[in-house]
Automatic annotation (TrEMBL):
<keyword id="KW-0547">Nucleotide-binding</keyword>
<dbReference type="GO" id="GO:0003723">
    <property type="term" value="F:RNA binding"/>
</dbReference>
<feature type="domain" description="PUA">
    <location>
        <begin position="290"/>
        <end position="373"/>
    </location>
</feature>
<dbReference type="InterPro" id="IPR036974">
    <property type="entry name" value="PUA_sf"/>
</dbReference>
<keyword id="KW-0067">ATP-binding</keyword>
<keyword id="KW-0028">Amino-acid biosynthesis</keyword>
<feature type="binding site">
    <location>
        <begin position="227"/>
        <end position="233"/>
    </location>
    <ligand>
        <name>ATP</name>
    </ligand>
</feature>
<dbReference type="InterPro" id="IPR002478">
    <property type="entry name" value="PUA"/>
</dbReference>
<dbReference type="InterPro" id="IPR041739">
    <property type="entry name" value="G5K_ProB"/>
</dbReference>
<comment type="similarity">
    <text>Belongs to the glutamate 5-kinase family.</text>
</comment>
<dbReference type="GO" id="GO:0055129">
    <property type="term" value="P:L-proline biosynthetic process"/>
</dbReference>
<dbReference type="Pfam" id="PF00696">
    <property type="entry name" value="AA_kinase"/>
</dbReference>
<dbReference type="InterPro" id="IPR019797">
    <property type="entry name" value="Glutamate_5-kinase_CS"/>
</dbReference>
<dbReference type="InterPro" id="IPR001048">
    <property type="entry name" value="Asp/Glu/Uridylate_kinase"/>
</dbReference>
<dbReference type="GO" id="GO:0004349">
    <property type="term" value="F:glutamate 5-kinase activity"/>
</dbReference>
<dbReference type="Pfam" id="PF01472">
    <property type="entry name" value="PUA"/>
</dbReference>
<dbReference type="GO" id="GO:0005829">
    <property type="term" value="C:cytosol"/>
</dbReference>
Amino acid sequence: MSTPNLSTPNPVTDRTKLRDARRIVVKIGSSSLTDGQGGVSVPAIDALTRVVGQLYHDGAQVVLVSSGAIAAGFRPLGLDKRPKDLATQQAAAAVGQSRLMAQYTESFWKHSISVAQVLLTAEDLMRRTQYNNAFRSLNRLLNLGVLPVVNENDAVATHEIRFGDNDRLASLVAAVIKADVLFMLSDVDALYDGPPTQPGARRIANVSAEANLAHISVGDSGSSIGTGGMVTKLQAASIATDAGIPTFLTSAENAQAAIDGEDIGTWFASRGERKSARNAWLEHMAISRGSIMIDDGAVEAITVRRRSLLPAGLIGVSGTFEAGDVVEITNSQGTVIARGLTNYSVTELPAMVGKSTRQLRDELGPEYDRVVIHTDDTVIVKQTTLTS
Ligand SMILES: Nc1ncnc2c1ncn2[C@@H]1O[C@H](COP(=O)(O)OP(=O)(O)O)[C@@H](O)[C@H]1O
Ligand SMILES: N[C@@H](CCC(=O)OP(=O)(O)O)C(=O)O
């Protein structure tokens, strides 16, 4: 099976076309996989592998982003609920992850599917070399017909470098592998206009723009097992749809009915073109090493006219960046409007502020006759209204 390329139109144009996806990221939450007493639920995993196995045998390449490591580690460690301290969470994850994988290996093998465990840290997606590495590895597994089961590497993740929720991790993995759709399975069957425990909460069937979310109230996880609740699911849907990947949310029990085209769940339409993995990386994952403040004329030039950033538009610089690093570009009020790869270091730029490239060539030499950030190395940051 070949890698979808960006010029291939996305076959998944609406909720009835889920079956047409050639590459799918399926994300499943802890509460849908564990039995409530801190053990892996074999019936739940068997049900999931039946649905995912069908997608696989219908010709799709599937990456499963599975939570549940910490929850599956409670019981073996003699705990009755999610541990609060990091070290015990790490221990629970290390124990639970291997139990989870043992069950996935057995359940998927009933459908003649080999699985691979891929544990990622936030850093793996934030640094360009590691990001390329993650892409190569996942791509190779998919092309070998293996089904990668991804989770955060919780046994070594610390608070500072942790995603903490697999919703955003799943959307980033979808961007990395250029998935056709992100399929999120939870313990709730859809997004509601208010927490579903509130009487009268209504299902939101379709989200085609952020404006559709303006009057929605979202809350934390409704269970003691899940992490992030609906807030991180909306963030994930925003990252994915912005990268041109539609997102579908429903419950694990409804997964097959959704694939069969029933009007259930919530469909988040993709916004715009499929983004190159590089641009998705630049916008959502790369670690910024500093910032460059620019004037209003330069803001207009790079955001509206899509020009490269010239030294003449600079107001100031800060941070610790070298040439080739990722920096944030802010307007004169300090709002981040774009991110890009800079051609100059933080020590070179102050002498260039406000000068034309010709002036710089005459004053500093021909190597300074270059743009600060090329338009091909710039992504405009969407001004989001999605907050908790
Ligand atoms: N507006 C909302 N619509 C739907 N669910 C919501 C909303 N606000 C909060 N939730 C809660 O989010 C929960 C799903 O998040 P979470 O527990 O983290 O699931 P998972 O383990 O699948 O990641 C639901 O069970 C529900 O209680
Ligand atoms: N990496 C963690 C998952 C954390 C998480 O996102 O959980 P969930 O909200 O249930 O998807 C684990 O495996 O326990």
